[in-house]
Each structure stands twice: as C-alpha cells, then as structure tokens.
Amino acid sequence: MSIYSFPVLKMTGIIQFIRDSKLSISEEDIKNCDPAAVRRFFEAFFEVILDISKDDLTQPALSGLSALQHPNLHESSVPELAFFRTSKKLLEACGVDDFTWRDIQKPTLKRLRYLLSAIINFSKFKEERKVHFDQYLKTTVPSPSHVLRSLTYLDTLQDNLLRTKQQVEDENVALRRQLEELQSKQAAEAPALQVVIDECAAMEVDIGVLNTRQSVLQPEVKALKAQVAQLNDDIVPITFIRMN
C-alpha cells in the first residue's frame, strides 16, 4: 500500500536507472530478486534520501550491542534490525507504508519492481526539487561582490550617520548653552523687570483715579461750556448795538 501514488516502472527503466547510478547490481540480480542486491540498492539510497551513510547505520548497532548481556549472540541480529528499520523508513519516505521483512529476504519480482519504482521516483523528484532550489538560491542569494558592495555602502552610510549625529549633538550643546545664558540673563534682569511691572501697576492705579475724576468733572465742564456759549450769545447783541 502506498501513501501517495507513483508510476511502477518497467524493468528497462529500472535497469537503466541502475546503470546511470553506477550501482553494482546487474539485470540478473533484479530479475532473480537477489536479497543481497536488494540490500545494496537500499543502502545506496539511505544516504541519497535519508542522509544516512553506511557508517551511520552501523554505529547505533555497535553501540547497542554493548548494552546487551550477551552481545556476541546478537552480533548479526542487531545490525539486521537496524537495516530493516532504516529500510522501512526509506520506503515510508518514498510513499510505501507496508514494508516488511519479506521484502528484504524473499521479495517477488512484482513487489521488487514496486519498491524500486517508489525509491527511483522519489529520488528523481528530490533531485528535481534540489535543482530548482539551487536555481532559486542563485537568483535570490546575492553574489560575494554584491555583498561586498552592500557592506561598503553600509559602512559609508554608517559613517555619514555618525557625522550627522555628532553635528546634531554639537548643535544641541550650543543651543543648551545659549538657553542657559538667556535664563541667567533673565534671572539677573528679573528684579528690574519687577520694578517696571510695579511702576506700571501704580500708573494704572493713578490713571484709574484720574479717569474717575474726569467722569465726575465732566458734567461740570459741560455746564461751564453751556454758560460760556450763553454768554457768547448775550455779548453779540450788545456789541452790535454799540457799533450802531
């Protein structure tokens, strides 16, 4: 049973792939379902698909033997178990989830074609993805010369920013000094300013008093103006009579 579908290759396609991959497996080995040839095929793709080398495969097995009470009795079974587990992991990665011991020890030609097709299809798919990914990196990852130019530009930009920052800080210090001088001058002139303010306040009081007096005297002034006008009117006839 497969997790996802893939085409089962013809024998000619499988043999051609084996030749192109330069694996030490003959066409007769495949047709005869030779277990040793099957093992060599699986081992060749442990590293291609799972990134597990043959040395990596044997290391856990050897370390596991030391934990057993009679390690000499398990010198063959422990490595076999490690090989089976890795093979099962390999086939699961390729979309096969029903891998068993029989697929290693006594595979049928039909079953072997199915398993090899799964591995071959997945390895080709992975290689194609790798090519696309490498092309993507070439188009997106900048070249060393571009990185160097960018770093040079950033260094120049940083220097300019540092100079600008220093200028701003110097101007800030100068402005603070001017502000302190103005504040000191203002503090020194504060008493004289207060005297002027007090004098202005006193003058405002005097002006208020004068305005009050003016408002009181205004009716009298108006009455006097009326009397003067009346006297002027009285004087005109008298002057006219004398002239005649």
UniProtKB/TrEMBL annotation:
Biological processes annotated in GO: attachment of mitotic spindle microtubules to kinetochore; cell division; kinetochore organization; meiotic chromosome segregation; mitotic spindle organization
Name of this chain's protein: Kinetochore protein Nuf2 N-terminal domain-containing protein
GO molecular function: protein-containing complex binding
Native source organism of the sequence: Aphanomyces astaci
Subcellular location: Chromosome, Centromere, Kinetochore; Nucleus
Coiled-coil residue spans: 154-185
Main location: nucleus
Keywords: Cell cycle, Cell division, Centromere, Chromosome, Coiled coil, Kinetochore, Mitosis, Nucleus
Record-level GO cellular component terms: Ndc80 complex; nucleus
Pfam families (UniProt xref): Nuf2
Domain Kinetochore protein Nuf2 N-terminal: 4-138
Family in the record: Belongs to the NUF2 family.
